[in-house]
TrEMBL record, chains A, B:
UniProt pathway: Amino-acid biosynthesis; L-leucine biosynthesis; L-leucine from 3-methyl-2-oxobutanoate: step 3/4
Record field: catalytic activity: (2R,3S)-3-isopropylmalate + NAD(+) = 4-methyl-2-oxopentanoate + CO2 + NADH
SMART domains membership: Iso_dh
Entries under PROSITE patterns matching the protein: IDH_IMDH
Function: Catalyzes the oxidation of 3-carboxy-2-hydroxy-4-methylpentanoate (3-isopropylmalate) to 3-carboxy-4-methyl-2-oxopentanoate. The product decarboxylates to 4-methyl-2 oxopentanoate.
Residues bound to NAD(+): G285, S286, A287, P288, D289, I290, A291, G292, K293, G294, I295, A296, N297
HAMAP family hit by this protein: LeuB_type1
Complex and partners: Homodimer.
Sites where the protein binds substrate: R90, R100, R128, D227
Note describing how the cofactor binds: Binds 1 Mg(2+) or Mn(2+) ion per subunit.
Organism: Rhodoferax lithotrophicus
Cofactor(s) demanded: Mn(2+); Mg(2+)
Pfam families: Iso_dh (PF00180)
Protein name as catalogued: 3-isopropylmalate dehydrogenase
Length: 360, 360
């Protein structure tokens, strides 16, 4: 089992170090190889995703990713900015299925902006298509407008697009995830989110979801417009089970859902391709403002490592152990700064990692 | 002063009737003419926006709009669905600037999903560009893909686009609104929301915002990515002052922001063109589930009529009177079902309208 370890920028190195520590404490044999990515790679090699890093990621069974980005790279041309590394990895590894659980841990209910009764027990799964849509659609660029409101003036444009097989495969992923969750006690429902009252792309999205849904008679399917979904997540997030949507809407809704929990520092994510190869990273970013201070929360990354064990490395039992250890450190009252509240014990990034190892 | 009154579908007729009642109680002379729109117009004339309705709207100084839509029209071809009426009005009247205040009324703090301290005193303004972006961008449709992940398969596509002058004019609207708010005690800040790390359209959007911002040295400008904006609205909505964004992102974020207040039945909106002609409508929809029951909240529509007086009809004093009357009925403890809580008095749509008239 080979793991490519890509810590990246900001707090990335600190939180990935703790996840690696946890992986090493298991009685499993991995080959782990570390490489630069994002701003760190740009500094060293002039590119956020150097060939050598991409090669390592492709050859590995899984990629453990920290975070990329820093304000100081904002002025670079877009192809050289740190976040291009993550877009490049998604594209070159074909990581089309992004899993973003939004879970509210019992002990952290108070951290949410939402009233406790709306958020306690939240356990929903957002599945975001990750290699299509307006993120990668060609053509795109700048040109002189020949029609529209101001012909003759400069305009910029992008193309939103989805093909039928792209929608089919993410639909299967969503229905199968709902089925697994149903077996574990969830409702067994997929909510497909689109904007079919305006967009052609969304109309095809909805049509294909309906078609594929016919193959999963044990799972309920409903549809919601994206503006309404943004509202329902605020109003009654627990009404969702599995939410599936395209790349652009998924970017917005998955972040909204994470923030609802109030503890985005706890939320892992997985991005999978058709061969069970995956990239695993925390849902939060590189947080340059707190980098190097040893206060970042490593739990989202540690839980991402657990997802990696389960999804890509076929080590479900080890994943369970990590997740149980994380629950246990929360029960012990250990908290990094982001989730600290009166009456709990504030710990550093390193101490939190050590505590998880101890609890394994 | 000529007002086109377009009640539309669902609760539209009930809530617009109350707003008309309030307008008639003022000592002002309006010509008001009512026409069908949405599903109601489709039933009568076979089209959601008949020529006669469009003509009336174009000739009027302002349009007072209720709401359109009903599940029963979901199966119609998209050009015949009720919501095409609203898109058609925006397009044909050139209503490029949408004002969506998100205000939390003191008496209704408890209705929010958010903890009271996060939402009490909220008063932010979302300005959404309304005639450009992927909503109207050509080309769009279905075709056989010639590139991408699955060449040869059916795909659907849409075009996101913004021209420089389209962005310039909405930027001016945003900075001027921030200036007016600053004069009334707000911070004087515009937050421009885009996705410039991925989209060409967003990069032009941001560039033009920066350029126009140089003309407003009294107003601060900052930029936020749309995924982060969706999070910050949940985390700390009061940190915003004026948020300006494109049509697609604005659709999502303005609905999210409205729902945060917990009382979307209270929130008006205005959609303006370059000649101060405007369309005024509640931020909520046609709510077919409660239509005809006389329980809908007419206050968002009544407050939309106030915006109409201020923005299009140059009757700021009358607008102030309506807004004060709405505050007064809330203080009296009158509540429609959507904002009812223990200890207040539940009233019908009609009673609420009457109470506002009385409080004028
Ligand atoms: C960094 C950025 C390109 C990326 C995205 O928009 O997909 C990020 O926001 C995410 O959600 O992983
Ligand atoms: C009905 C629909 C086309 C419309 C939109 O997406 O603009 C609505 O959601 C709105 O925000 O006014």
């Amino acid at each position: 089992m080979k793991i490519a370890v890509l810590p990246g920028d900001g707090i990335g190195t600190e939180i990935v170090a703790e996840a690696v520590k946890v992986l090493q404490a298991l009685d499993l044999k991995f080959e782990m190889e570390t490489a630069l990515v994002g701003g760190a790679a740009y500094e060293a090699h002039g590119h956020p995703l150097p060939e050598s890093t991409l090669k390592l990621a492709k050859e590995a069974d899984a990629v453990l990713f920290g975070a990329v980005g820093d304000w100081k790279y904002d002025k670079l041309d877009r192809p050289l900015r740190p976040e291009q590394a993550i877009l490049g990895l998604r594209k070159h590894l074909g990581l089309f299925a992004n899993f973003r659980p939004a879970i509210c841990y019992e002990q952290l209910v108070g951290a949410s902006s939402l009233k406790p009764e709306l958020i306690a027990g939240l356990d929903i799964l957002i599945i975001r298509e990750l290699t299509g849509d307006i993120y990668f659609g060609q053509p795109r660029g700048r040109r002189i407008a020949t029609d529209g409101h101001f012909p003759g003036s400069e305009e910029a444009f992008d193309t939103m697009r989805y093909s039928r097989p792209e929608i089919e495969r993410i639909a299967h992923v969503a229905f199968q995830a709902a089925r697994k969750r149903k077996a574990a006690g969830s409702e067994g429902r997929v909510t497909s989110v689109d904007k079919n009252n305006v967009l052609e792309t969304s109309q095809l999205w909805k049509d294909v979801m309906v078609e594929i849904g016919l193959q999963y008679t044990d799972i309920a399917l409903d549809h919601m417009l994206v503006d309404n979904a943004a509202m329902q997540l605020v109003k009654a997030p627990k009404k969702f089970d599995v939410l599936v949507t395209g790349n652009m809407f998924g970017d917005i809704l998955s972040d909204e859902a994470s923030m609802l929990t109030g503890s985005i520092g706890m939320l892992p994510s997985a991005s999978m391709n058709a061969n069970n190869q995956g990239l695993f990273e925390p849902s939060h970013g590189s947080a340059p403002d707190i980098a190097g201070k040893g206060i970042a929360n490593p739990l989202a990354t540690i839980l991402s490592a657990a997802m990696m064990l389960r999804f890509s490395l076929n080590q479900g039992a080890a994943a369970d152990r990590i997740e149980a250890a994380v629950k246990s450190v929360l029960e012990q009252g250990l908290r990094t700064a982001d989730i600290y509240s009166a009456g709990t014990t504030r710990v550093s990034t390193l101490e939190m990692g050590d505590a998880v190892v101890k609890a394994l």
